[in-house]
Specification:
The structure holds 2 protein chains of 2 kinds.
Chain A (H helix, E strand, L loop, with lengths): L11 E9 L5 E9 L16 E4 L5 E5 L8 H13 L6 E5 L16 H28 L6 E4 L2 E4 L4 E4 L4 H5 L30 H5 L15 E7 L6 E5 L1 H5 L4 E7 L11 E6 L2 H6 L6 E4 L6 H12 L4 E6 L2 H6 L3 E9 L11 E6 L5 E5 L4 H12 L6 E5 L13 H13 L3 E4 L2 H6 L7 E9 L5 E13 L2 E2 L17 E10 L12 H18 L4 H8 L11 H15 L9 E10 L2 E12 L2 E12 L6 H18 L6 E2 L2 E2 L17 E6 L17 H13 L14 E2 L2
Parallel strand pairs in A: 4-5, 9-19, 17-18, 21-23, 26-29, 26-30
Antiparallel strand pairs in A: 1-2, 2-3, 3-4, 6-7, 7-8, 9-12, 10-13, 11-12, 14-23, 15-20, 16-17, 16-19, 20-21, 21-22, 24-25, 25-26, 27-28
Chain B lengths: L5 E8 L2 E8 L4 H8 L18 E4 L2 E4 L12 E3 L1 H4 L6 H8 L9 H14 L5 H8 L9 H18 L4
Parallel strand pairs in B: 1-5
Antiparallel strand pairs in B: 1-2, 3-4, 3-5
Helix pairs in contact in B: 3-6, 4-6
The chains are: A alpha+beta, B alpha+beta.
Chain lengths: ~725, ~160
């Protein structure tokens, strides 16, 4: 059962830690210790993973531990603390902290920030309030139960006395710290006053006035700028390069070959060029001549040929429930279809970059827009042979993550260059570097066969998935869980897998896997429903009404999102000529999302007019951030469904927004979000809304035009999205 | 080897004159970012396709990655830093009320382009907005909010009794 996420270590216990800082501020942290022992750092210091400071002027500082990539954590997390601490949002300051093991997990990924932080944040806020209330009660010699808190003030009703938090800090610090089990943590939407409301982002002012925030905005005294030329053919090594000639060019301070390693996710071979300005470094590339030694020639055409050949084979059976072949023999009808989606790029708008300074003391300092800076630090430590405790990583705001920045190749490149240059260096990739050296979402082929009985229910389901692998296992981002629905929803089920050898870098792309194969599943469900002459909504609700063995997802929560999206969209109405409605449900990363899309056909083009979304991720923290993620996911799905990355001679053929254009304003649909505010613990929203968006749209395209999209991008079916 | 191919140019940026030595072909974007440490204008594509580097040249939105710095002597250049540093322009107010950004990387370009649109068209239709804003990409997909915010900014400006 993967409907809700538990803390990976159920035996861990939380402790509150409170101290008075030199500034007089009251600092509150939460410390998780395993039941068997303590989690103290080797030097014996206490290891909090969150700090809240209540300052002498009455303001509250909340330290933001996770990187901010647009997912909204830097605003939503402090909201949780403010909610539990009963302080006004205007009195909150948020500070981004650097990478520091005391803070625990510091990752943007897997939509896991919210479930990871939920308890800590509530414990810190509630624990602080507990102490402040106790301090006020002591001061007035009244029972704590008679004291209430609001807007940073403790009030005693009986005597009509009030005291602001800032006057209670010393008293609170002197009190014994409560056991976490004594704290009443708010958990139900109806208890919230700030959570669930629409709160603008804490960095907005700095964004709107162009202040430095992002990795590429880092400016250090005496800083140089670098570019790094890698072989367009993945894995290519440098045999020779005219670096002596490059060093003579205007503004160039350094040019050198980096031998690198053979790790596609690490330091690849290349040529570094460093200059007084980035423009000069990059312009020098026009004169750069490199002899590359290449070892592979992967191409999209060859992948297609291999996929075709594998399709007729048996593949490796990953799961077999019941007897699929007998089910097909006794089926009233057989439906077969094949689906394909291409490789795609993350296309972060801020191209990869990192700033590095190698101090004379041997310490490496980095400013990195990384989604997973801790693994970046480990990579730098490994490749440069510097102990991790000599590497300091500052976290910057990130100009788009989407999974690309879970890989830290740009960090190790910058660190390597900085150690040679011995001055602060900013490595800035070009758009072309970024598009040609991504970790792509892998392409995939899905061959489906379903048998239905005379009531139109699926009795047998065979799925042959052709994906990419190495040494018999799918490469990063290419795997499919054998437990994925419709496994468990169909009595006779078989999943087979075949692997194509690949030498190109792949990796997690927003909702890894799900964002791709949900398109195939949910489109095919529509085909089965129509072949069975059943309504697509009724067919799906029926599919979710029973399971065979362990249900693959929480059937009730999934159905509820489908019902609300359908109801709000007016499912069942006649949308009129050249119009159609399509739907899909999905579950991933802890979140349940269904969409209904309305499409209008316009000549050879289509317009997605509106999308209605039903979402259950438990209580919504920041309504603005939550809606933003739903809107962003729907638009990302529509944008990406029009793009593809192709390979020829071992290299990517696309290079910039000429040939990988993202959705433009006007092509975006209206998006209406309906959140089911259930009592389940909140989960993240950066990923769950994207997977079902693509098939909701393609199913609506079929309803509007009669064209069944079985291959992406849309262009393969001659369909374009109009403004 | 330094100093070769350098040209001196005086640029009027955010109401201040800056004299600097730049390579003849250096785009304004890199003069702003690397010479003047004005990093609000962002690099996204380098070929004028994404609009993250948008600045106003004599009030007109232009993509600073494709304009050579030396060609802009005598022009009034406004970057996002100098546009409304107090964050009180109707477009900034509306952008906050609608909480437009996700990652925020493109938003400087979006705000300057929107402000220029409202300057010449105080009450734009959806089609006007699509037309004016289509050169500025948002990878995160904040377009529905950009549209709402432009309409709100138009209203805020009208209430203030002047053009945005």
């Amino acid at each position: 059962m993967n409907a809700t996420r538990q803390h990976p270590d159920l035996n861990r216990r939380a402790f509150l830690k409170v101290s008075l800082l030199a500034s007089g501020a009251l600092a509150i942290g939460v410390h998780w210790a395993s039941a068997s022992g303590t989690d103290q750092l080797p030097d014996g210091t206490w290891a909090p993973n969150l700090y809240v400071r209540i300052n002498r002027d009455g303001t509250v500082t909340i330290l933001s531990k996770n990187p901010e990539a647009g997912q909204g954590v830097k605003t939503a997390f402090p909201m949780v603390v403010a909610e539990c601490l009963e302080v006004d949002w205007n009195d909150i300051n948020v500070e981004q902290v650097p990478l520091d093991d005391r803070y625990g997990r510091q990752v943007v990924g897997g939509s896991y920030g919210t479930p990871d932080g939920w308890d800590d944040l509530r414990i810190a806020g509630t624990g602080a309030l507990y102490l402040l209330q106790a301090a006020a009660a002591n001061q007035w010699a009244v029972p704590v139960s008679e004291c209430s808190a609001k807007s940073g003030v403790i009030h005693h009703k009986g005597s009509n006395r009030s005291v602001p938090y800032k006057e209670l800090l010393d008293g609170a610090a002197a009190l014994p710290v409560p056991e976490v089990s004594e704290l009443k943590l708010k958990s139900r939407p109806e208890d919230f006053t700030l959570l669930g409301t629409f709160v603008p982002g804490v960095d907005n002012r700095r964004i709107f006035t162009g202040q430095p925030l992002y990795g590429c905005d880092t400016r250090l005294e005496g800083m140089l700028y670098a570019v790094f030329e890698k072989c367009p053919n993945f894995g290519g090594k440098v045999l020779s390069a005219n670096v002596a000639q490059i060093r003579e060019l205007p503004g160039i301070t350094h040019a050198f070959v980096v031998d690198g390693t053979s790790d596609l996710t690490g330091l690849m071979p290349g040529v570094a060029i460093v200059a007084e300005t980035w423009w000069q470094a990059n312009t020098a590339r026009d004169q750069l001549q490199v002899n590359w030694q290449t070892s592979q020639s992967d191409s999209t055409a060859d992948y297609d040929r291999q996929a075709k050949a594998l399709a007729t084979g048996p593949g490796e059976t990953l799961r077999a429930d019941g007897d699929v072949e007998s089910a097909f023999d006794s089926a009233a009808k057989i439906i077969q279809a094949s689906y394909y989606y291409p490789f795609v790029s993350h296309a972060n708008l801020e191209p990869q970059n990192c700033t590095a300074l190698f101090h004379e003391s041997g310490k490496m300092e980095l400013w990195a827009p990384s989604q997973n800076p801790k693994s970046g630090r480990a990579l730098v430590a490994e490749v440069l042979e510097i102990p991790e405790d000599r590497i300091h990583v500052n976290l910057t705001r990130i100009g788009g993550g989407f999974g690309r920045r879970l890989r830290n190749d740009f960090m190790v490149e910058a660190a390597w260059i900085a150690r040679i240059v011995r001055r602060p260096v900013q490595l800035q990739w070009t758009r072309e570097d970024d598009m040609r050296h991504d970790f792509y979402r892998p392409a995939g082929w899905h061959h489906f066969k379903a048998g239905i009985d005379d009531r139109g229910r699926m009795t047998g389901f065979d799925h042959h998935f052709i994906t990419f692998g190495k040494d018999g296992r799918p490469v990063s981002g290419a795997g499919l869980s054998p437990g994925h629905y419709p496994a468990g929803l169909v009595p006779n089920f078989r999943l087979r897998q075949s692997l194509i050898d690949s030498h190109v870098p792949t990796g997690p792309w927003r909702s890894p896997g799900h964002s791709a194969y949900c398109f195939a599943y949910q489109s095919f469900f529509d085909e089965v429903a129509l072949a069975a002459e059943r309504d697509p909504l009724e067919f799906r609700l029926d599919l979710l009404s029973r399971s065979f063995g362990e249900p693959p997802i929480d059937l009730e929560r999934s159905s509820a999102t489908l019902r609300i999206a359908a109801e709000k969209a007016g499912w069942g109405r006649d949308p009129g000529p050249n119009r159609g409605l399509g739907m899909a449900f999905h579950f991933d990363h802890g979140g349940f999302v269904s969409h209904v899309a309305e499409v209008v056909a316009m000549g050879s083009g289509i317009k997605v007019e509106k999308v209605w979304s039903g979402i259950d991720v438990g209580p919504v923290l920041n309504l603005s951030g939550a809606r933003n993620q739903v809107e962003g996911c729907v638009i990302d799905a529509l944008s990406t469904a029009q793009q593809e990355i192709t390979f020829a001679d071992g290299a990517v053929e696309q290079s910039n927004f000429y040939d990988y254009d993202l959705l433009r304003i006007g092509q975006d649909p209206e998006i209406e979000c309906h959140f089911i505010q259930s009592d389940h613990s909140p989960t993240g929203l950066g990923e769950p809304p994207i997977a079902p968006a693509t098939p909701a749209i393609t199913n609506a395209i079929f309803a509007a035009t009669g064209t069944r999209i079985r291959e992406l991008p849309f262009g393969r079916a001659g369909i374009s999205v109009q403004v | 080897m330094r100093g070769r191919n350098m040209n001196q140019v005086t640029l009027n940026i955010n109401g201040q004159a800056h004299t600097l030595d730049v390579p003849a072909d250096m785009p304004l974007l890199w003069a702003l970012r690397d010479k003047l440490n004005l990093v609000g204008s962002k690099y996204g594509c380098g070929v004028g396709l994404c609009g993250s580097c948008t600045v106003l040249v004599n009030g007109v939105p232009m993509q600073s990655c494709t304009l050579s710095a030396i060609s802009l002597a005598g022009k009034e250049i406004t970057t996002i830093e100098g546009f409304a540093p107090n964050n009180d322009h109707p477009v900034q107010i509306a952008w906050n009320d609608e909480d437009v950004p996700q990652c925020g990387y493109c938003q400087g370009g979006q705000i300057l382009t929107a402000a220029a649109l409202l300057e010449r068209n105080p009450n734009p239709s959806d089609a006007d907005i699509d037309d004016a804003m289509s050169g500025v990409l948002c990878r995160c997909g904040t377009y529905p909010r950009i549209r709402k915010a432009i309409k709100l900014a138009a209203k805020v400006a009208a209430e203030k009794g002047g053009a945005a």
